[in-house]
Amino acid sequence: MWRKLLRILGFLIGWGVILAYILYASHLAQEHHAEQRVEEVVVSISDSTATQLFATSEQIHRQLQRGGFRIENKMADSVDAVKISDYIARNGFVRDVDAYVTYSGKLYVDVKQHEPIVRLLCGGENSYITPEGVVFRSPQGSAYYTAVVTGTYRPIFVRNYEGDISSRYASMLAKEEDKLTELGRAFAEVKSERSACLSRRSELRKKSKQGVFESKENHQQRKVGIGAELAKCDDKLKQLAGRKASLEKRKQGVEKRKKKLEKKYDDFLNLINFVTKVEEDSFWSAEVVQFIADTTSMGEINMRLVPRSGDFVIEFGTLADSDEKLKKLQTFYDDGLAHMGWNQYKIVDVRYNKQVICTE
Predict the structure, then answer these.
(1) What gap in Å lies between CA 132 and CA 114, rounded to an integer?
(2) What angle do CA 40, 41, 47 make, to 5 degrees?
(3) What span, in angstroms and rounded, lies between the C-alpha atoms of 1 and 297?
(4) In a 10 Å sphere around its CB, with 0-12 CB exposed, 13-18 middle and 19+ buried, how is residue 54 labelled?
(5) Phi, psi dihedrals of residue 37, rounded to the nearest 5°
(6) Deepest in the core among 53, 268, 281, 316, taking most CB within 10 A?
C-alpha cells in the first residue's frame, strides 16, 4: 500500500519538476526574446535553379525595404512575421511563404515558388500557368525555362489576371447564370401579368353581353366603358408581347455568351493538357521548342509546332485527335526524316487523316 503511494507521489513530483523547468525555460525564452534584436534577415527560395528562378533573395530583400519593413536591429518581439508573410505572398509566383524569428535573432523568410508548366506569350498576355491551374504574371527580370505558347490565341482570363483559373471561370459562369435566373423571374412576371390581363379580358367580354332585363340604351352606355377597358387590355397585351420578345433576345444573348465562355474554357484546358502531354514525353519535350496557337475564323485553336531539329514548322491543326497526330509525327520522324534529311522541307503537315504532307 505504502509502496504504491510512494510510487504515485514520486511520479507526481517528477512531472512537477519537469513542468516547473518548462515554465522556467519558457520564461527565460520570453525575457530573451523581449531583449533580442534582429541581427540578420535570411531569405531562401525553394525549387529554384539558374534557369528556374522568378526572384532572387536580394530582390525579396529590396521588396521588404520598399514595403517599409525596417527589420534589422529591430526588437524581435516587435517583428510581425504574419504581416511579412502576407506581403511577400502578394507576388503571383509565390506558392507559400513562412517567416519566423529564431532564438539567435535571425529572421528567416522561406519562400516556395510555383512551378509552371507553360508560359503564355500570346494575345498580349505574358503569364505562367501551373499544373494546378494557377495563373500569374511573369515577374520582371525573371529567368524560368518552360514551354512557351505564342500566337494570336487569347486565353479565357482577362489580361494581367492572377489566381486560380477554375475559380475565375466559375465566377464568370455564375454571373451569366445569375442573369438567366433574373431573366427567368422577368419571364414569370410577364407570364403572370399576361394571364391576369387575359382573365380580365375574358371577364369584360362576358360583361359586354346585354342582360335579360337590361335596356338597350343602358347596355350601349355600358359597352362604351367596357370597350375602353378592353382596349387597355389589348394595349397591355401588346406591351407584354414586346417585353417578352425583348427578354427572349436578351436570353439568347446570355446563352450565347455562356456557350462561348464554356467553349473558351474547354479550349484552354485542351491547350494546357496538350502542352502538358508534350512536355511529359521525353522525346517531344526535348524536340518542341515553341507552340504557336492561333484562333481560326470558326473559333477553333490552330496549332503549329516549332521543332528543335531541322528548319521546318509542323502544321498540327486543331487539338482534336492529338494523340493520333503525335503518333503519326513520331513515325514520320523515325521512318521519313531519318532518310530524307532534316532540312529538305519547310512545312510538315499532319492535319489530315493518315497523311503527312511535306512542302519544300
Answers:
(1) 10
(2) 140
(3) 95
(4) buried
(5) -105, 150
(6) 316
DSSP 8-state secondary structure symbol assigned to residue 157: S
Q: Which of 155, 167, 160 is nearest to 272 (CA)?
A: 155
Each residue of 119-128: b (16+ CB within 10 Å) or e? bbbbbebebb
Share above pLDDT 70 across residues of the chain, in percent, rounded to a whole number? 82
- Find the range with the poorest average confidence among 112-121, 195-204, 244-253, 331-340: 331-340
Rounded to whole angstroms, the Cα distance separating 31 from 82 reads 22
Residue that is written with C-alpha cell 513562412 in the block = 98
In 3D space, the residue among 154, 161, 149, 106 whose CA is nearest the CA of residue 272 turns out to be 149
Q: How many CB atoms lie within 10 A of CB 137?
A: 17
Write out the three cell numbers for 11: 511520479
Helix (H, G, I), strand (E, B) or coil at 302: strand
Q: Is 24 exposed, middle or buried (0-12, 13-18, 19+ CB in 10 A)?
A: exposed
What are the grid coordinates assigned to 250, written together?
436578351
Q: Which spans in 112-215 are helix H?
A: 165-207
- Decide: pTM greater than 0.85: no
Q: Is the pLDDT of residue 187 over 60?
A: yes
How is 55-104 classified by DSSP, letter by letter? --HHHHHHHHHHTT---TTSBGGG--HHHHHHHHTTSTTEEEEEEEE-TT
**Cell numbers at residue 245, please?**
420578345
**Dihedrals φ, ψ of 106, to 5°?**
-105, 135
What pLDDT is recorded for position 306? 92
> 108: helix, coil or strand?
strand
